[in-house]
Amino acid sequence: MQFSALRNIQTRHFGEFWEKVKEEFPSTRDMVPLPDVSELPSVELLLMPPLRRVFMISGDQRYVVQLQDTRFNLNWRKVDPADQYPRFDAVFGKFQHAWGLFAEFAELASLGNLIPDRYELTYVNHLDMKTDGFSRELETKVKMLKWEGIGASFLPSPVSVSGAWQFQMPDSKGIFAANLSHAKRPDGRDLLVLNISCAGPASSRYSMKEWFDTAHEWIVRGFTDLTTDEAHQVWGRIS
């Protein structure tokens, strides 16, 4: 979630909020702040450098709260290869709980009203390459996506690939986007990364939950539309 900047917030407030959640999120890490996203171009003159973004990490390392003066994010991440993706309701429930704690803290600390102005929901899918013949396997993986092939008679199999789709969500709720890219793991193994996300403005026409419910439906059904039945079997799609 992105929200209107809290003009009264200071670095110390991040530490004070962490004191309230450190049993669940016992470790922290400082990160570079993310730039704000605006529907319209804007320029802001800063008298002070921006505050850092703070990671607050759960004891099992799987959940991360990201906090900066204009953003509140919650992520689930895969730590062990055997980890199973949690259901949306479980992760969204944690997000709502953590956001509620921060909203309560902001009010008690007289930081001003928390006014959401943008929402985002993102799923990150890693498609590991199982063999050393990356070029040949890449061609197979790409065919699991409904991607128009080149059909070349001269060019060999590609050694890398990237692409993007964007679709308008209903009722001006934002954009559904799918982005495919080639990446490498720290151990040098190749993989494809498929990011599927919805992002759009907050509005008085719908609640936060209504927006996220719509985004979740679009991601689930959009993933189904963009991938083949073979892909669903490989990834063990349930619904």
- The helical percent reads 25-40%
Order of helices and strands: EHEEEEHEHEEEHH
Q: Write down how many β-strands occur, each being a DSSP E stretch of 2 or more residues.
A: 9
Unreliable stretches: none
Radius of gyration: 20 Å
Shape: globular
The overall number of domains is: 2
Task: Report the β-strand fraction as a percent range.
Answer: 25-35%
User: What is the count of helical runs?
Assistant: 5
Structural class of the secondary elements? alpha+beta
The biggest beta sheet is recorded as:
5 strands, antiparallel
Mean pLDDT: 85
Please list the strands of the largest sheet in the order they lie side by side.
Answer: 1-6-9-8-7
Note the gap between the termini: 26 Å
Protein architecture, described:
This protein has 5 helices and 9 strands, in the order βαββββαβαβββαα. The protein is of the alpha+beta class and 239 residues long. It has 2 domains: 2-114; 120-235, no CATH class. A 5-stranded antiparallel sheet has the order 1-6-9-8-7. The longest helix has 21 residues, at 88-108. It is globular and about 65 Å long. 17% of the residues are buried.
Keywords, separated by commas or semicolons:
four-stranded antiparallel sheet, alpha+beta, 2 domains, five-stranded antiparallel sheet
